[in-house]
Amino acid sequence: MTTNTNIASDIAEAKRRIKIFDTTLRDGEQAPGASMKPEQKIVIARQLARMGVDVIEPGFAISSPGEFQAIQHISRELQNVEICGFARCVKADIDSAVAATQDAARRRLHLFISASQIHLDFQLRKTQDQVVQMMREMVAYGKQFVDEIEFSPMDASRSSEEFLFRVVEAAIEEGATIINIPDTMGYALPEEFGPLFTRVREGVRGGDKVVYSTHCHNDLGLAVANSLAAIRHGVTQVEVSVNGVGERAGNCSLEELVMAIETRGDSMGVETGIRTEHIYETSRLVSRTMHFPIAFNKPIVGRNAFQHESGIHQDGLLKNRNTYEIMDPEAMGIPRSMIILGKHSGRHAIKHRVSEFGVSLDEKEMEELYNRFKAKADELKIVTDDVLMELVGESTDTIVQPYSLVDLQVLAGSNRSRIASVTIRSSADGEERTYTGAGDGPLEAVIHCIREAMPVDAVFEDLELHSLSTGEDATGEAVVTVSSAGKRNIGSAVHKDIILAAAKAYVAAVNGVILAVRTKEVRREAAGE
């Protein structure tokens, strides 16, 4: 029999659902250089819906005809997610936002107006009374088109509380159903920003009858912290962007906020509906589309977020992942490559990496490899897979890699296709074979050649190029990701010629696919399968 005590306990343990409002396509696109074509915005919107965001703010409809069309397309196609039309407290803005989102299955209007005195004096050049009247008229006007009106007093964290309370109260009286209190300039501190929501809720007439949201910028690196503080004070919607893109230093990062809740949600009593396995894919899509590189040390999705070079850390990870990781990267769709080999790496990590390629070394061979490795690690920042396999071959007097790149030449010109010639050696028969190919770019031509030389079912998925130094003698690092049978393999290489580095990285990645298949077959035979 269920008792009232048990019911009360279950209710107390139930987590509060936090809505994820994504503004990548609106505020995110306002970052200098982040502008996207309408068709690109549609692709990202589909991915956001797939990832499970609750609300998409697809753009600023009045800003351009292309923007209007993109919002209209997204509203018509994505019927399983709420669409938010964004507008200033200006009639023309509202008309445009309403028209662009009219085919959405669920929609709201998001109206904003400045609330800080510095904005009123120097931007709007209006008095507080004029701002309140202007806001009242536009909220009432927008209310005739939609049931849900979200209102944002811009620069709220630098506004006087007296005027903030006044403008919020007026918005509620005119029919606003969601009050978004933004830290527009990233100025607030968590200990002052969170309690602000409690004071608004308690100090404004009707303040306990509306939903609260927040929109934090990252100028002081506090956007996620301020958003979490707001959640602790009753906020049930957070406005975020993928990779934290947005004006100036950007917005609250979707992936950081979501994973903070995913990892520490029990202590906060909250959860989201985000399907975390899509986080990495979405991050990469936005980065490539906007041509915004992701910092190596970016939490969650940065290249170094789940990679370790320190021997002490590597040893702990190989024994138990939880020793130095609080999240599972694979649960976010991040390829598992936690061990990075460099001068701080120890024997355990090197042996583990070699074993992943199906290579077993005795004690003498391991010691020989370790000595060669340390000498090479002093020379290079990172010992890439192709270099490691070369060292293994030198240490064991064998050829470990299934294929190796012997020679590469590319003919390029401004008015012709690029032509490449690649010579590949196969360890199976020791033969060297030369292949030629053409493409619109030199790398495309090279990849065509290598695909012909290495007939493996592996899709070239992604290429990263990084400069490792400056000046005329700069070297570049190439990181290539290929997918095969639903799994990703990563190859990397370093060279002064970035085309050669990319080619070597691609060969290393495909070699990884081949060796992984061989290792799997060997293990099956050993298990008697």
Automatic annotation (TrEMBL):
Q: Name one GO molecular function term.
A: 2-isopropylmalate synthase activity
Q: Which UniProt keywords apply?
A: Acyltransferase, Amino-acid biosynthesis, Branched-chain amino acid biosynthesis, Leucine biosynthesis, Manganese, Metal-binding, Transferase
Q: Which residues form the Pyruvate carboxyltransferase domain?
A: 18-280
Presence of keyword Metal-binding: yes
EC number from the UniProt entry: 2.3.3.13
Concerning SUPFAM superfamilies, the annotation shows:
2-isopropylmalate synthase LeuA, allosteric (dimerisation) domain, Aldolase
Pathway in which this enzyme or protein is active: Amino-acid biosynthesis; L-leucine biosynthesis; L-leucine from 3-methyl-2-oxobutanoate: step 1/4
**Superkingdom in the source lineage:** Bacteria
The first-level EC class reads: transferase
Q: Coiled-coil annotation: which residues?
A: none
- CDD domains from the entry? DRE_TIM_IPMS
The UniProt family comment states: Belongs to the alpha-IPM synthase/homocitrate synthase family. LeuA type 1 subfamily.
- Enumerate the PANTHER family for this protein: 2-ISOPROPYLMALATE SYNTHASE 1, CHLOROPLASTIC-RELATED (PTHR10277:SF9), HOMOCITRATE SYNTHASE-RELATED (PTHR10277)
What is the name attached to this protein's record?
2-isopropylmalate synthase
